[in-house]
From TrEMBL:
Protein name per its UniProtKB record: Ubiquitin-like domain-containing protein
A matching Pfam family: ubiquitin
SUPFAM superfamilies, sorted: Ubiquitin-like
Superkingdom assignment: Eukaryota
PROSITE patterns: UBIQUITIN_2
Residues in Ubiquitin-like domain copies: 2-68
Lineage: Eukaryota, Fungi, Dikarya, Basidiomycota, Agaricomycotina
């Protein structure tokens, strides 16, 4: 039985201990019932996504290509925004801002010297800072800004 890690967000914040061990042959509807039972989140409040695709109740997790997920110790996820497009990135607290910019550039096909990262208040992050020293938290958000 694969370990599939899910993040449960309620009122804009992740719930603690989001891991459930489930069979990948299970339907999305069954997963929602399991979440209701173990995390006390009503089914009608659940909105399940996998790589930005809304999961349909009658399909199995396997049909979406969802397989065992191995969590990397110390890894975290942040979201970033380029214009109107938003995406997520797996990083580590000790990664440098420059390394994060490189990952974003690779993933989004941007030229590294054409953008920098800011917080939600438009404060620019120095490339030599770490994610931790910049104060970026798990499920945090950064913006990609362009010099004039």
């Amino acid at each position: 039985m694969p370990n599939i890690c899910i993040s449960i967000i309620r009122d804009g914040r992740p719930l603690s201990n989001p891991k459930l061990t489930i069979d990948d042959g299970r339907t999305v509807a069954r997963l929602k019932r399991d979440i209701r039972m173990s995390k006390n989140v009503a089914i009608e409040e659940q909105y399940l996504l996998f790589y930005k695709e809304v999961l349909q109740d009658d399909r199995t997790l396997k049909s979406y290509g969802i397989r065992e997920v191995v969590q990397t110790p110390g890894a975290m996820q942040i979201s970033y925004q380029i214009g109107q497009n938003q995406d997520v990135l797996r990083i580590r607290p000790k990664d440098l801002i420059l390394e994060v910019r490189r990952k974003i550039a690779d993933k989004s096909k941007l030229e590294l010297d054409k953008f920098y990262l800011t917080d939600t208040q438009s404060k620019r992050f120095d490339d030599s800072m770490t994610i931790d020293s910049a104060g970026i938290k798990v499920n945090g958000h950064v913006n990609c800004a362009y010099p004039l």
